[in-house]
């Protein structure tokens, strides 16, 4: 049985803007990175059940890169996205409007290569970067 990891943030922006930044590749390219020394070099997103998404994250120094891809299992616009990664791990993201903010809760199945703490920190760093990108733009 795999562990599930939960991360959260609150974004001070309207739900429509939060959803657009989460799902539109022109925005995904801006925020989908855990730290300033990484960037997303390519992103595709077919936002429908059965649709595929894929983004390529790379170290800016060219030392490494990887693809993060999956297939959508469930989409409720402005509320929920669920998908299965290429390694069959499940991810669910819930968007809730609370007091003029959007709370994003992301739950994902852990992989076996990195510590749970490292995975939580990495995914949280990307989510924090998403928050600051939405609030700044």
From TrEMBL:
Q: Which Gene3D superfamilies match?
A: 3.30.530.20
What's one Pfam family the UniProt record gives for this protein? Answer: AHSA1
Xref: CDD domains: SRPBCC_CalC_Aha1-like_4
Residue ranges of every copy of the Activator of Hsp90 ATPase homologue 1/2-like C-terminal domain listed in the record: 12-135
What InterPro entries does the annotation carry? ASHA1/2-like_C, START-like_dom_sf
Please, which domain of life does this record's source organism belong to?
Bacteria
Indicate the family of this protein: Belongs to the AHA1 family.
What's this protein's name? SRPBCC family protein
What species does this protein belong to?
Flavobacterium ponti
């Amino acid at each position: 049985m795999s562990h599930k990891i939960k991360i959260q943030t609150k974004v001070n922006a309207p739900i429509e803007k939060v959803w657009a930044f989460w799902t539109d590749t022109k925005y995904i390219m801006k925020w989908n990175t855990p730290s300033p020394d990484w960037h997303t070099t390519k992103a595709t997103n077919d936002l429908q059940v059965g649709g595929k998404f894929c983004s390529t994250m790379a170290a800016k120094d060219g030392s490494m890169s990887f693809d993060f891809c999956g297939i959508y299992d469930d989409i409720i616009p402005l509320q929920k996205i669920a998908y299965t990664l290429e390694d069959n791990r499940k991810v669910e993201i819930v968007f809730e409007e609370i007091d003029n903010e959007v709370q994003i809760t992301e739950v994902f199945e852990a992989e076996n290569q990195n510590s749970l703490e490292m995975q939580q920190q990495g995914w949280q760093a990307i989510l924090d970067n998403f928050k600051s990108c939405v609030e700044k733009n």
